[in-house]
Amino acid sequence: MAAIAPYGSWDSPISVSMLTAARVTLGQLFTDGDRVLWTESRPQEAGRTAVVECDGYGDLRDLTPPGFDARTRVHEYGGGAVAVSGDRVIASSFTDQRVYRLDGDAPWPITPEPDIPAGDRYADFAIHGEVVIAVRERHRTAGEPKAAIVMFPVDGSDRPRKVVSGRDFYSTPRVSPDGDKLLWLEWDHPNMPWDGTELWVAALGPDGITEPEHVAGGPSESIFQPEWSPDGQLFYVSDRTGWWNLYRMQNGEPVDVYPAEAEFGWPQWQFGMRRYGFLPGGTITCVYDDTGHQHLAELRSHLTRVGLGRDAISPTIAVTGHTVWVIAGSGTRPMAVMRFDTTTGVASEVRASESRSVGREYTIRPHPIEFPTTGGATAHGFWYPPTNPNFTAPEGERPPLVVFSHGGPTSQTMGAFRLDIQFWTSRGFGVVDVNYRGSTGYGRTYRDALKGKWGILDTDDCVAAARYLADEGHVDPNRLAIRGGSAGGYTTLCALTFRDVFHAGASYFGVSDCALLAENTHKFESRYLDTLIGPYPEQEDLYAERSPLNAADQLMTPVILLQGLDDKVVPPEQAELMIAMLDKNQVPHAYVAFEGEGHGFRRARNIEHAAAAELSFYARVFGITPAGEIEPVPIRHEEYLDG
What we know:
- By secondary structure, the chain is mainly beta.
- It contains nine helices and 38 strands.
- The radius of gyration is 24 Å and the shape is globular.
- The model has no long low-confidence stretch (mean pLDDT 95).
């Protein structure tokens, strides 16, 4: 029989150490011919990213030696750090940001040592014969980093030289099958790539490009993943109709391959994202979003869903012959590298992100919910009720709720199995993971709703999710918490400062001062707030109004802040200024800072410490005694919790 115990105090098999033990984060897929590679971040190896290859027998081997971290810092978020062509494999090294060959006895650099350590950064490679074409971001001691598309020999015998330059940002250089043309994307401040990008095509020769032509896109049209088909046709994804649909250029004009109110694109936070590929015979394999779920499909004259058994699919897809490779999961299965044989219809799992299993009786499939929010709008999310077969709560008790607010904010949360969510639900907490207005997967209108309203509509929707679940009787209205990282940390601080709904919160590397973010963040996001809030410094008063730091006297809710001290996106100053105000106002709070961590924690001991600290903090605020050995986090002004 199940024991009776208060919500939040249940003993769980999902310990803090299990959050990182035998666990990796699967990154991107890379293929050429029959070769299949992918990247995986390993918390147990100080968070380094390894390159893994799967051979024809399903055996796996590392192509990177111990210690080699295959990551690029272009745009700080990286992506597209690896390329393969025949026997040649190249990758960026996180340590010095040079490009290395991985196909010898040991990695060897093929780009020169820059004048400034890690000053030249490379990403989004295309290997064309004996030449590599890539995006380069050049950092110098003063001024904004300069972006360009460069080319250099794959054997490292000459220095990179610029092929395309003059714009603020570039991505996706791709060479046509006959080698005669190069395509790429470019855009300028203040646009982000999901706001507006331009697709260009030029003739490609040994000395660079000629006859550049603007093919599609503009300031208010987002182009995603331009690609050459095997027979040389130009394809790309555009949101010109309000939905990211797939287009083909035909006689110089774009043709919508499959018009639909569905999203075939994805916000380009990283390089190297792919959501479609080409199968033999002209069939297109693709991934698309439909009301927050991802589907694998085949597209000819009509769209046919593939029975993958997974409805959470990362924006990375690859094709080898008749086989489609994806990284996918479901509500009860963690993300995994999967192989789908299009001739037999059989899908198989090649590499799971979790190698230690949790009994399904301890996990709960996410329930998609829609709920009313401000302005007569509808918002979306995934609801996870408490689940543990060994426990039941006392009659009449409702569980505490933790609202998850995702980062971005132009991003989305997926309904995949997540151990960090089951960590809470198996202890007796309810969780709601919110796709607030501004999230992707629901069309451009929903995505653009947050423009000029950041800190308002995202906060409204997280508040509405909590109230909806409380009103429906699912959670305790007096024990509501909110947490999030980066932009989600900002939403958390806004909710705690400007609303009177939540009783605790956790901000992971969150923004407290919008003006400080506009002045001090990295190039890629340095003008992001122009659209989310307004032009800066012209609307400096609006930035002040939206900053929790400037209204810290209103923040009386206990909060824990967690911060990486090497964060270049949201620098530690953002958390430290907030801590000073919380101290001044004697608000109960905790601060956990991590040396060597950037924007997002990668090292096992830090991930585990952060989870334990957050659980300890909520337990103290809500008067819960958590099961197991959870080290109490020090709370400043703790005496006021009992007042």
